[in-house]
Design brief:
By secondary structure, this protein is of the alpha/beta class. It contains 16 helices and 19 strands. An eleven-stranded mixed β-sheet has the order 1-6-7-5-2-8-9-10-13-12-11, sandwiched between helices. The protein has a six-stranded parallel β-sheet with strand order 16-15-14-17-18-19, sandwiched between helices. α13 links the parallel β17 and β18. Bound molecules: GDP-alpha-D-glucose.
């Protein structure tokens, strides 16, 4: 990968995402840019779009003590395996990042997006800083975009960017994708800045979500605040409905009108790179990883796997409580199971996440103390990230993937588990409040707010005959394959109307 500050061409596609599209590492006292090690995850997926245009740009923030004199080049030109593209590094102070990202986005927006009203924290929000940072992102994007270019903005921390961009550059085609859920008006309208946020989103040409329910919620929120008309509705494909589950919808709005503008509302679930994961699943190092895992577990111990970030939305505490109840009710399972609970913190030093982490540690300790023995440890808690290739060995070794968030935009862990199961076995137990539940209808669907539903889902997965496991896994693998990240990329491209000049 090479990087320089040479002259650059205007870009036909500008991606605005808060993180930089590479890793910055220190080598011999110097900062070196490295291509992300794993081609898995959202950053490499977004970079794969670069191959579809003449020239592309990426806008992200980079910390600087003095943004007026940041001590690094604002815009660099990168050449890596995805092509050559500009990266515009927006200098922000640590205080600006804390305010716009850790406070406004994580303490005020995140709880509301995931329907946790009681965790919403308004007091520390500094709205002028949020506006100022979003304005700076919009300016940086406008500076890179060619006439009629597509600007693709990601996630709620950049909610005001589309509105500002439209003022600066009426020629652009603007698309905004939400990676989180989008709640109904009763919940969303807790945010006092609701009208400003929705007006900004209505300046887009395309507003994207994972699933039809979130798109429909957005439209009802917009209609609660402004004159917005639904111009076209469509029947939701059976591919995106799991009959009778909490997030399934049969009809959804696809085009809305506001102030003489038509806005496309798109539901396109992000998927995983199935080819990459399968290749890793077939790799000899995965087989040796599995042998190590088996040796560690012992021949007869059945592995249940749970993976997620440490976050109250992921339902880690509720899941461990269910495990404790099942062990209490089913002494026949003692000595035979191991729950591996991988809960990795992305936002250390935030009170809400520290509280979840200590809750998880407390229950896991209680379970091991109550049921465990010298020979048997019912739960293993992993709090630091596992390299992805090792994670695939765990996916392949686990009889059950137990993925029960209380709310989740999509959830890619469950899809990674399915993509890893090249042997066609394994059971996925999945919360009906993960967006993925509308795509993965062959999972054992559970309601994490119901003790009975949670406990029964786990025991039915443990007791499921092989034939049923394989039938379900076959259906799951078909769904993950059809809704892979390539399908998502194609759906986005179609929504942009191709990437030619607008
Ligand atoms: C947001 C939305 C939406 C986790 N532990 C380890 C590890 N991971 C990787 C997984 C997976 C990723 O992290 C988690 O992705 P999710 O999609 O499950 O969840 P969020 O981080 O909350 O992502 C979500 C997503 O955006 C995309 O739109 O699906 O709903 O909340 O890829 O593998 N990876 C490694 N070691 C770990 O220990 N290597």
């Amino acid at each position: 990968m090479t990087a320089n500050g040479a002259d650059r061409a205007p870009s036909d596609l500008v991606i605005v995402y808060h993180r930089q599209p590479y890793e910055e590492v220190e080598e011999d006292g110097e900062t070196v840019l490295r291509e992300n090690k794993s081609p898995n995850g959202i950053v490499p997926t977004l970079k794969s779009f670069f191959g579809r245009v003449n020239h592309a740009a990426w806008v992200a923030w980079k910390e600087a003590e003095d943004p007026a004199d940041p001590g690094f080049e604002r815009v660099i030109e990168i050449d890596d395996s995805y092509g050559s593209y500009s990266v515009s590094r927006l200098p922000l102070t640590a205080a600006q990042v804390r305010s716009f990202y850790h406070v406004t986005s994580k303490e005020a927006f995140w709880p509301i997006l995931h329907s946790f009203k009681e965790r919403y924290n308004y007091d520390p929000v500094d709205w002028p800083t949020f506006r100022e940072v979003n304005w700076a992102f919009a300016e940086a994007a406008a500076a890179e975009a060619a006439e009629g270019a597509v600007v693709w903005v990601h996630d709620y921390n950049l909610w005001l960017v589309p509105g500002y961009l439209r003022q600066m550059r009426p020629d652009l085609r603007i698309s905004f994708f939400h990676h989180t859920p989008f709640p109904s008006a009763d919940m969303f309208n807790v945010l006092p800045w609701r009208r400003e946020i929705v007006e900004s989103l209505l300046a887009c040409d395309v507003v994207g979500f994972h699933i039809p329910r979130f798109a429909a919620n957005f439209v009802t929120v917009a209609q609660s605040l402004l004159e917005v008309e639904v111009l076209e509705r469509a029947t939701v494909s059976t591919e995106f409905t799991t009959d009778g589950t909490a997030l399934s919808d049969r009809r959804a709005p696809v085009i809305i009108g506001h102030a003489d503008r038509r806005i496309r509302v798109v539901a396109a679930p992000v998927g995983v790179d199935v080819g990459f994961i399968e290749k890793q699943a077939w790799a000899p190092e995965t087989a040796s990883g599995m042998a190590d895992i088996r040796a560690e577990l012992g021949q007869d111990t059945r592995l249940i796997l749970s993976v997620g970030r440490t976050d109250y939305t992921k339902g880690g505490i509720e899941q461990l409580e269910s495990y404790e109840r099942v062990l209490t009710e089913r002494p026949d399972l003692h000595g035979k199971l191991r729950l591996m609970h991988v809960s990795v913190s992305a936002n250390r030093n935030m009170a809400a996440y520290e509280e979840v982490q200590s809750g998880i540690e407390q229950i896991a300790g209680r379970i091991n103390g109550t049921f465990g023995s010298f020979e048997w440890q019912p739960v293993s808690l992993i709090s630091s990230p596992i390299p992805f290739k090792n994670l695939v060995a765990y996916y392949r070794s686990a009889e059950i993937a137990w993925i029960t968030p209380l709310a989740d935009g999509m959830n890619l862990v469950c899809e990674e588990y399915v993509a890893s199961r090249i042997d066609g076995d394994g059971v996925l137990v999945l919360s009906e409040f993960a967006g993925a539940s509308v795509v993965l209808s062959a999972a054992v669907i559970t309601n994490p707010f119901s003790h009975r539903s949670m406990d029964q889902a786990l025991t039915s997965a443990l007791d499921m005959p092989e034939e049923e496991r394989r039938q379900r896994m076959k259906l799951l693998r078909g769904a993950v394959e059809r809704n892979s990240v390539t399908a998502w990329a194609d759906a986005q491209m179609a929504a942009f109307g191709g990437l030619g000049a607008g």
